């Protein structure tokens, strides 16, 4: 729809003597989408005002932070009797191998909070005959053992039948499994163990239970592990992020005055940093040669939420070496074969540096974007946490033998005297999951979907606002014949005001299209996760194709949106018209786009990598993502400046011819950079001379 118009696509824009850059006398665009966006935002706020009190009253973030025992109590919660017992212990981890675990997300065995995980093999039968052993064993039993025999204790479910050496993992006690060189699975350095029921079992029997129990907690615990790392070293992380911001700012300022030198220094330093990374990874790979267990493959290790585990595996460092070596070779080859294009891209960055010199406030605009995104993310996160934890604890009947009441909802307070217990003596009423049967709980999934969709829409809107604001400011620089006299006093504020006053609908329209595609990608990932156990290759292939297609579509829409916002900032037309004009303008200048724009993006990407590498050398590795985002924020100003100048340059070429009557607005240096790259200069070419004369007289 956005590339259909009355004007033929291949027809260049004609000369207009009244055009002097971004049009100030403009009207509101895409009003319908603006109204829809405002209504959705009001609905989003209404969700917070009307629904959130209920979510806050029933929601409990502790359900996300702490593991929950069979009674629904939180292990390790401060101010409770379980404060000193932060770990969750499974009575019989092998029962987690049941397929029901993956359906109901709960292991059908008693779970209790303990102070520390067991560190030795021990059965209840053996411990009962030794006073010291039984005292140790009681740490993993319920209360009320006095005067009971072993049989009575086991039948009442007060103690596990056995203990195996375990290690805490994501606040849960899992058997300390290991794999020998021959592939033999061991637990506590033993390949067999006594299950407490008179049977000698293989250690590999524990593997299935551990895997299923881990599946239940993986996604949540990844987030919590990262959160814990940040809370433990927040000051170092904060220092690292401040360093990243200062280095980025210093780098941008130096580019303003020493663009050519800085770009070459940046390229050399990136090559040296990658080379040092290869050397460091090689040393780590060699040092792990004699370490026990380091030869385990990543496939055998599987997914681990404690990422430091991977650093003790030789294959991890080998993968790092290969990846860094490939990146190093690619960069060197690009330098060799694209050296002329790189020289042109450096000159284009110099021109962008001059533009930023006139609009210095643009360097700090990413801080405003970051603040708005922080508000959007915070509102979404708080809403998501309380919505997802506003369910009530649900208890179900779990049993080992056939029972008509299996998996039915029960009440733990009176279960021992209920008819369910009488009909199924070996059954237990255990905590299953969080849920509810009220009207609020029935529509909870809809509220969560609405929360996610509005998050995407608002985040994309904030990003689009930043792009249009910067585009308007840099366009005012380009189309100013006499700089800075013909420029607004405050280009950023002037462009921001125009964008919000006239083009909120266009921003909402572009961000809505992108959000719909992103939410479809999320749904595809959700479907793929649910169908991971299927063996239907046709289904897997179809999902893979769909995910690939929508990934490409998202990249294309981002490209179209970015250039459409530039055209909206200049001409003040609606989104579809601007997207159509930008698309065909770029198609008419396809060669220039291919050889210059992407090379410039590559150089700016190297700058981001250099900043991240410098920050990681002096701060914790957890700041890698934050450092990259900060560097991306500052360099996005340069990227937007380059894209805007390039689009304005293409417009300038179609509007003007370089004569005294229709002079170019571009500088002589920009004329040399871009025009002569794709056109052979001739001795009789008047355009360059007239351009130089015009700019000199200016």
Descriptors:
single chain; 698 residues; mainly alpha; two-stranded antiparallel sheet; 23 helices; 7% strand; elongated; disordered N terminus; disordered C terminus
What report would you give on this structure?
Keywords: Antiport, Cell membrane, Glycoprotein, Membrane, Mitochondrion, Mitochondrion outer membrane, Phosphoprotein, Transmembrane, Transmembrane helix, Transport. It comes from Oncorhynchus tshawytscha. With 698 residues, the chain is mainly alpha-helical. Helix content is 61%, strand content 7%. It has 23 helices and twelve strands. The strands form six sheets. A two-stranded antiparallel sheet has the order 1-2. It has a two-stranded antiparallel sheet with strand order 3-4. Strand 5 and strand 6 form a beta hairpin. Helix 15 packs across helix 18. The protein is elongated and about 105 Å long. The two termini are 42 Å apart. The N terminus and C terminus are likely disordered.
Layout of helices and strands:
Elements lengths: L30 H28 L3 H4 L21 E4 L9 H5 L6 E4 L7 E2 H4 L3 H7 L12 H7 L5 E2 L2 E4 L2 E4 L1 E3 L5 E3 L4 E3 L5 E3 L2 H28 L1 H54 L10 H4 L12 H24 L1 H20 L6 H24 L3 E7 L20 H5 L4 E8 L3 H4 L1 H35 L12 H12 L1 H27 L6 H35 L3 H13 L2 H28 L6 H32 L12 H11 L7 H12 L1
Antiparallel strand pairs: 1-2, 3-4, 5-6, 7-8, 9-10, 11-12
Helix pairs in contact: 1-15, 1-17, 8-10, 8-11, 8-20, 8-21, 11-20, 11-21, 11-22, 12-15, 12-21, 15-16, 15-17, 15-18, 15-21, 17-18, 18-19, 20-21
Membrane topology: Multi-pass membrane protein
Pfam family, one: Choline_transpo
Keywords: Antiport, Cell membrane, Glycoprotein, Membrane, Mitochondrion, Mitochondrion outer membrane, Phosphoprotein, Transmembrane, Transmembrane helix, Transport
């Amino acid at each position: 729809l956005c590339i259909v118009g009355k004007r033929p696509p291949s027809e260049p824009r004609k000369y207009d003597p009244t055009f002097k850059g971004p049009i100030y006398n403009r009207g509101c665009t895409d009003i319908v989408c603006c109204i829809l966006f405002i209504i959705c935002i009001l609905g989003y706020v209404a969700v917070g005002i009307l629904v959130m009190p209920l979510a806050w009253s029933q929601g409990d973030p502790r359900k996300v932070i702490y593991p929950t025992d069979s009674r629904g109590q939180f292990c390790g919660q401060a101010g409770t009797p379980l404060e000193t017992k932060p770990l969750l212990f499974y009575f019989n981890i092998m029962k987690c191998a049941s397929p029901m675990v993956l359906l109901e997300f709960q292991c059908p065995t008693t779970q209790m909070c303990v102070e520390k995980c067991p560190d030795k093999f021990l059965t209840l039968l053996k411990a009962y005959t030794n006073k010291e052993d039984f005292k140790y064993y009681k740490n993993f039993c319920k209360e009320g053992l006095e005067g009971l025999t072993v049989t009575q204790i086991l039948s009442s479910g007060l103690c596990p039948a056995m203990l195996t050496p375990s290690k805490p993992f994501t606040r849960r006690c899992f058997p300390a499994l290991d794999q020998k060189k021959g592939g033999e699975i061991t637990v506590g350095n033993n390949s067999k163990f006594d299950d407490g029921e008179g049977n000698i079992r293989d250690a590999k029997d524990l593997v299935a239970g551990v895997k299923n129990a881990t599946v239940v907690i993986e996604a949540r615990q990844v987030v919590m592990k990262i959160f814990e790392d940040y809370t433990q070293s927040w000051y170092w992380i904060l220092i690292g992020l401040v360093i990243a911001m200062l280095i980025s700012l210093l780098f941008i300022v130096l580019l303003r005055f020493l663009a050519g030198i800085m770009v070459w220094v940046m390229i050399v330093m990136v090559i040296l940093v990658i080379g040092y990374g290869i050397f460091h990874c090689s040393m780590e790979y060699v040092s792990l040669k004699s370490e026990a267990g380091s030869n385990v493959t990543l496939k055998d290790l599987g997914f681990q939420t404690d990422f430091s585990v991977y650093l003790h595996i030789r294959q991890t460092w080998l993968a790092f070496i290969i990846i860094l070596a490939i990146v190093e070779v690619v960069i060197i080859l690009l330098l060799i074969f694209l050296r002329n294009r790189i020289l042109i891209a450096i000159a284009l960055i110099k021109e962008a540096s001059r533009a930023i010199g006139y609009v210095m406030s643009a360097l700090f605009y990413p801080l405003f974007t970051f603040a708005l995104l922080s508000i959007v993310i915070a509102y979404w996160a708080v809403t998501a946490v309380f919505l997802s934890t506003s369910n009530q604890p649900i208890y179900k009947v779990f049993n080992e033998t056939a029972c008509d009441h299996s998996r039915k909802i029960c009440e733990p307070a009176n279960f021992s005297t209920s008819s369910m217990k009488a009909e199924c003596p070996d059954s237990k009423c255990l905590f299953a999951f969080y849920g509810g049967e009220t009207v609020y709980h029935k529509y909870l999934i809809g509220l969560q979907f609405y929360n996610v969709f509005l998050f995407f829409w608002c985040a994309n809107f904030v990003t689009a606002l930043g792009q249009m604001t910067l585009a308007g400011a840099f366009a005012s620089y380009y189309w100013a014949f006499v700089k800075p006299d013909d420029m607004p006093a405050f280009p950023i504020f002037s462009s921001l005001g125009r964008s919000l006053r006239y083009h909120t609908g266009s921003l909402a329209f572009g961000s809505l299209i992108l959000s719909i595609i992103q939410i479809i990608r999320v749904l595809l990932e959700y479907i793929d996760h649910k169908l991971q156990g299927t063996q239907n290759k046709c289904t897997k292939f179809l999902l893979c194709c769909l995910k690939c297609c929508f990934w490409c579509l998202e990249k294309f829409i981002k490209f179209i949106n970015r250039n459409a916002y530039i055209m909206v900032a200049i001409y003040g037309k609606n989104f579809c018209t601007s997207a159509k004009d930008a698309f065909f303008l770029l198609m008419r200048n396809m060669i220039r786009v291919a050889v210059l724009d992407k090379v410039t993006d590559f150089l700016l990407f190297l700058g981001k990598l250099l900043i991240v590498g410098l920050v990681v050398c002096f701060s914790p590795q957890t700041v890698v993502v934050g450092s990259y985002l900060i560097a991306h924020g500052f360099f996005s100003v340069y990227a937007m400046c380059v894209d805007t100048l390039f689009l304005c340059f293409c417009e300038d070429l179609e509007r003007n011819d370089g004569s005294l009557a229709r002079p170019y607005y571009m500088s002589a240096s920009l004329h040399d950079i871009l025009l002569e790259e794709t056109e052979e200069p001739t001795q009789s070419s008047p355009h360059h001379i007239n351009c130089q004369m015009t700019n000199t007289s200016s």
